């Protein structure tokens, strides 16, 4: 088995950052994206597999030879209220099955703070937090070496990354907070290399470092 890290949803706003950070570490990276997805120029020369995430055989083939997978797929707000169920529940379940069949042993799933909570405004979009929890449960019951990363509200800005410190805790301990997507990307890759993160649900936000 090689040391290839697969990243699904690599065209997304968190996914492409995970891919960039993995490349910066010098590792072998494979990007799993939908046929119509557009990748930034920074990922133009990557090993890219375009596939239908609804087809298990395509996923198994795309993951062949990979050591690990970071799942950064996620439903986007739209008029399709079935999107969260299709992407965050069924889609994750299918990727878990593909990992089992392809021999991918290490998996990190990017989920969301408050995953599983029913009474939350985000659930107005197709019960997205409920669907995310269903996806988490599929991974937790898979027998794989898994980690669930639940970031808070995701920020695009990257100007003050070095002035941020991470707030990391266990499941269902943080209710609010934000974090730059770039820091989420770095943390997911750190989890891949950390045996202590296996079989853990980790909630992550960030806050400004106190003045010296």
TrEMBL record:
InterPro entries: NAD(P)-bd_dom (IPR016040), NAD(P)-bd_dom_sf (IPR036291). Coiled coil: none annotated. It holds the Pfam family NAD_binding_10. Residues 9-195 form the NAD(P)-binding domain. This is SDR family oxidoreductase.
